[in-house]
Write a sequence for this structure.
């Protein structure tokens, strides 16, 4: 899988996240929970999904790009059901299998598959822009969802995907429309900007601990991720955008 985007870096990242006290402490401080985040998903953003899915012990939940499974396990604790996830990082899936009771698989978008009508909820947090063919992968997820099932995605433009005019012009929105999936989208760009600034302060708080662990490169990564929030918000918004997408598969009639 070496040819996949950032694959080698993520293998190293999840190996670090497994053992680093500084990184776990940083995540709790910056995001409210330690999900081993390498991105922008704090607990408030993730908790939005609870507005769209009712707790039920019979739920089946899938996380696309699940990392080490901490986030989907957090949702399971609030919604019930059984959890599934896949990620292309072998190190992440190894940790997920040790930490949580669920079905965790090594696999990549466009390559892995599940049976039709398998899931009540599919989450994709800062992962869909890794899909080699967004339209094809949205079609797969639609097939995996049960009738009435929910797709919940946190999606960003300006880094992996180029910035477009608004939520409706994103590659994800066009793919959802292509497959006849109605959706709602919330612009949380300002929230993202504020979180980036908060992340930077939190990383700086644990600078000495990162250095003591020999993890200076990961501290530098966190600094680099937040450099863009040093400019005024108006300039940031011209380059970056972040959205919450919620789509529901139509019920059978």
């Amino acid at each position: 899988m070496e040819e996949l985007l950032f694959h080698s870096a993520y293998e190293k990242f999840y190996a670090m996240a497994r053992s680093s006290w500084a990184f776990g402490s940083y995540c709790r401080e910056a995001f409210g929970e330690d999900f081993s985040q390498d991105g922008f998903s704090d607990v408030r953003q993730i908790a939005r999904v609870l507005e769209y899915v009712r707790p039920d012990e019979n739920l089946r939940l899938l996380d696309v790009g699940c990392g080490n499974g901490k986030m989907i396990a957090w949702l399971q604790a609030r919604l019930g059901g059984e959890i599934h996830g896949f990620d292309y990082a072998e190190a992440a899936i190894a940790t997920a299998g040790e930490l949580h009771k669920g079905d965790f698989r090594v696999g990549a978008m466009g390559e892995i598959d599940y049976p039709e009508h398998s899931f009540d909820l599919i989450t994709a947090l800062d992962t869909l822009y890794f899909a080699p063919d967004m339209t094809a992968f949205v079609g797969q997820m639609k097939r995996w969802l049960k009738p009435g099932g929910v797709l919940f995605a946190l999606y960003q433009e300006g880094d992996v995907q180029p910035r477009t005019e608004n939520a409706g012009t994103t590659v994800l929105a066009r793919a959802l429309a292509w497959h006849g999936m109605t959706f709602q989208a919330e612009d949380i760009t300002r929230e993202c900007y504020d979180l980036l600034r908060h992340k930077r302060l939190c990383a700086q708080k644990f600078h000495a601990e990162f250095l003591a662990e020999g993890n200076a490169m990961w501290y530098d990564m966190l600094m680099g991720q937040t450099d863009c929030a040093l400019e005024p918000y108006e300039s940031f918004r011209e380059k970056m955008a972040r959205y919450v997408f919620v789509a529901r598969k139509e019920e059978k009639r």
